[in-house]
Amino acid sequence: MSGARIIDRAMLDAASAAARESPRGRRNRNFHTTDEAQCHRLLNAIEPGSYVAPHRHLDPAKDETIIVLRGRLGCVVFDEAGSIVQSWVLAADSGRVGIDIPHGTYHTLLALEPGTVFFEAKAGPYLPLDEAELAPWAPREGEPGCAGFRAMIEQTIRNLQAVSQ
């Protein structure tokens, strides 16, 4: 069983530490060895305040599966016009631990507590998002308006949490 890797608390802690140190507030820990790999498997550590611009994957092979291993993650799905159509809180210690997002679906994710880490799997190879995959109605990462847009998404998630308690 040479090369087998255990996903343990130490690995999650290291991923979270790297995310805290990153200017973007998130960091991947890849299990696939190259960006050209046909299947991408990774830990994605994300901290509160990180902005993931709403996007979609147009390639029919790029459905995206996410399983929360630690922390709490907000997930929001939008329609073509940018209206929120679904939102969830996913948490390792709850009844909702993950989501499978079909290709072509606009979505964003946000950490709701420090130390949030999720496992992500989708088809490779890695290609940067192109213009058609970025939501035209949302700011891009680093643009003015990111903080306000993210705050609006977070408030939607917090309202959902208040209703479900």
Structure summary:
This protein has helices at residues 9-21, 146-164; strands spanning 26-30, 39-46, 64-70, 72-78, 84-91, 98-101, 106-111, 116-123. It has 165 residues and is α+β, with helices and mostly antiparallel strands. The model has no long low-confidence stretch (mean pLDDT 94).
Explain the overall architecture:
With 165 residues, this protein is an alpha+beta fold. Helix content is 19%, strand content 32%. The chain is built from 2 helices and 8 strands, in the order H-E-E-E-E-E-E-E-E-H. It has helices at 9-21, 146-164, and strands at residues 26-30, 39-46, 64-70, 72-78, 84-91, 98-101, 106-111, 116-123. The strands form 2 sheets. It has a 5-stranded antiparallel beta sheet. Strand 1 (26-30) and strand 2 (39-46) form a beta hairpin. It is globular and about 45 Å long. The model has no long low-confidence stretch (mean pLDDT 94).
Sheet of most strands:
5 strands, antiparallel
Q: Which consecutive residue ranges, at least 5 long each, have pLDDT under 50? A: none
CA gyration radius, whole angstroms:
16 Å
Q: Roughly what percent helix?
A: 10-25%
Shape: globular
Topology order in helix (H) and strand (E) letters: HEEEEEEEEH
Through-space gap between termini: 45 Å
Strand order of the largest sheet: 1-2-8-3-6
Number of strands: 8
Please tally the helical runs, counting DSSP H or I stretches of 4 or more residues. Answer: 2
Secondary structure layout plus pairing:
Elements: H1 9-21, E1 26-30, E2 39-46, E3 64-70, E4 72-78, E5 84-91, E6 98-101, E7 106-111, E8 116-123, H2 146-164
Antiparallel strand pairs: 1-2, 2-8, 3-6, 3-8, 4-5, 4-7
